């Protein structure tokens, strides 16, 4: 499993700063990818105010958590060379007119998608788990469908947008959902069914290329993995590791009894519920399709993947960290707590910088 994280680039005062090109130039001078495994380098994103890290693939959860922390520290050190810092916020709280990278594909997306592209200064957390073949990958994608909303609720970290409180734990997911392919999908059945859907989407002309297949979870076009893209970037590094452990558990659980497959309309409603209230209200239970307290639904997820977590040696860590998240709250709850203490937009970002690099 591996984790990709997108971060805001901000000034020391806490304002988003369009310096990605400079940061990447510094990175290219000092970073060297391993020829034996992917990940480990800093990568470009869509906007000048953001950057992406990726871990090498790891089987051990403790090692993966260490790679996540190391990637954050490395990205921040390189950002400092451009006079900036990194912040693990899924959306900037301030009013921002973001700028696309000086890149032909980025310019084409901006021209084609207008305001949707202009608004996309959002940061997510993507988890990759390895697969033997595309058919196994599609079996995992179909199994993940009812649980993706719970992963979103655990990660919610964008309660503010363009200078206003939104009332959402994850407003990033609402902004991201404007893309033509974003969100939950119907069951694909097998690799041929998945490929057929992607090919038909490309034929519509509504997306420029396969890289714009923005499903909540998809087959990676770069690696032999399933890529789960539903989560906000997590304020705390260990929360990102938790996402990876749960996704791997769900991938292993997919090899057992099939899950019931709700209609996509119901999954959209469950995803909206998770984005709106996160961990502070009800979530839609994947087992019953009815609302239950968030902590109870998160418990259902842990119970569902318990055998896989135990087999991987992850169970004790996951149970302990789930309890921490439910007690402490996700990033949205932490941000709202800072607001209650009197923090303004810039102070929220400065505190987020500290949390991003904690531990």
TrEMBL record:
InterPro entries according to UniProt: GCL_type2/YbdK_subfam, GCS2, Gln_synth/guanido_kin_cat_dom, YbdK
Catalysed reaction, written as an equation: L-cysteine + L-glutamate + ATP = gamma-L-glutamyl-L-cysteine + ADP + phosphate + H(+)
Listed EC numbers: 6.3.2.2
Keywords: ATP-binding, Ligase, Nucleotide-binding
NCBIfam families noted in UniProt: gshA_cyan_rel, PRK13517.1-1
Region listing for Disordered, in residue ranges: 28-55
Amino acid composition bias (Basic and acidic residues), ranges on this chain: 41-50
Annotated GO biological process: modified amino acid biosynthetic process
GO molecular function, one term: ATP binding
Pfam families assigned to the protein according to its UniProt record, in alphabetical order: GCS2 (PF04107)
Record PANTHER family: GLUTAMATE--CYSTEINE LIGASE 2-RELATED
Family: Belongs to the glutamate--cysteine ligase type 2 family. YbdK subfamily.
Residues that span the membrane, as ranges: none
Source species taxonomy: Bacteria, Bacillati, Actinomycetota, Actinomycetes, Micrococcales
UniProt-listed Gene3D superfamilies: 3.30.590.20
Function: ATP-dependent carboxylate-amine ligase which exhibits weak glutamate--cysteine ligase activity.
UniProt enzyme class: ligase
Top-rank taxon, per record: Bacteria
Protein name listed in UniProt: Putative glutamate--cysteine ligase 2
